[in-house]
Specification:
Helix content: 40-55%
Shape: elongated
Strand order of the largest sheet: 3-7-4-5-6
Order of helices and strands: HHEEHEEEEHEH
Structural class: alpha+beta
Number of helices: 5
Radius of gyration: 25 Å
Strand content: 15-25%
Number of domains: 2
Distance between the termini: 34 Å
């Protein structure tokens, strides 16, 4: 697995030079696409989205800043019936940042689109279903992540939490154990076993997510599974 890293302030931090920033960007995106090629989508996919949003915001903010500068009237265009203003002279650093923004935004967008398409393809292959009777309390329970090729079920305890600073819900998981699937080991039996072993959840919400392919768990299956739970509960 490649470690794809690019600081949030990479555009303005350190040496502001187009060729240098271009090198940082291309090295980062190469690592991201290397992870995507191995179906490792997280944390790179949301990271690329954040970089794209920051770059877009910087571009818009820069345009607003330039537009707010006082301009000197140099004449009048009588044909178009408007004043002609002196063109704003950008500093070298602003010009370099503008160049790298123009260069980076399409690359971020392209990589983001590739990652989202791959995410959608993988999600479409997964089977999501509740196990047993669905209780009224859905914010806490168990997640069964079954990888069909391995005949293994990873069992997690999950809790849905509200992240107030983001005003959105997310799922926190705790790994419990991995059980090998057999004819006698049904998902309903696994749930009953958990209820007997963990008395604090006598009637837990339990969800099964089955994957036909052996995708990476931490970097792909588990993050997608968390989002599916939030979508289902919502």
């Amino acid at each position: 697995m490649y470690m794809a890293t690019l600081t949030k302030d990479w555009l303005t931090d350190g040496w502001i030079d187009f060729e240098y920033k271009k090198y940082l960007l291309l090295a980062y995106l190469q690592d991201v696409k290397g992870n995507f090629s191995q179906a490792r989508l997280f944390p790179d996919l949301p990271d690329v989205q954040t970089h794209f949003e920051i770059a877009s915001q910087l571009k818009n903010t820069k345009s607003e800043i330039v537009a707010s500068f006082p301009k000197k009237v140099t004449g009048v265009d009588f044909k178009k019936k408007r004043f002609v203003y002196e063109k704003f002279q950008e500093s070298q650093q602003l010009s370099e940042i503008d160049s790298i923004l123009e260069y980076s935004l399409p690359l971020f967008q392209q990589t983001l689109t590739e990652g989202r398409n791959q995410y959608a393809d993988i999600e479409a292959q997964l089977t999501f279903a509740p196990v047993g009777i669905v209780p009224l309390h859905l914010k806490e329970g168990y997640l069964f992540l079954y990888r069909a090729r391995r005949h293994e079920t990873d069992i997690y305890h999950y809790q849905i939490r509200l992240f107030e600073h983001r005003e959105q819900r997310g799922v926190q998981t705790t790994y419990l154990e991995t059980v090998r699937k057999s004819i006698s080991t049904t998902f309903e039996n696994l749930k009953l076993t958990l209820i007997k072993k963990r008395r604090e959840l006598p009637n837990p919400a339990t969800y099964l997510i089955e994957s036909p392919a052996d995708y990476p768990v931490q970097e792909t299956l588990l993050p997608i599974a968390k989002r599916l739970i939030v979508k289902y509960v919502a």
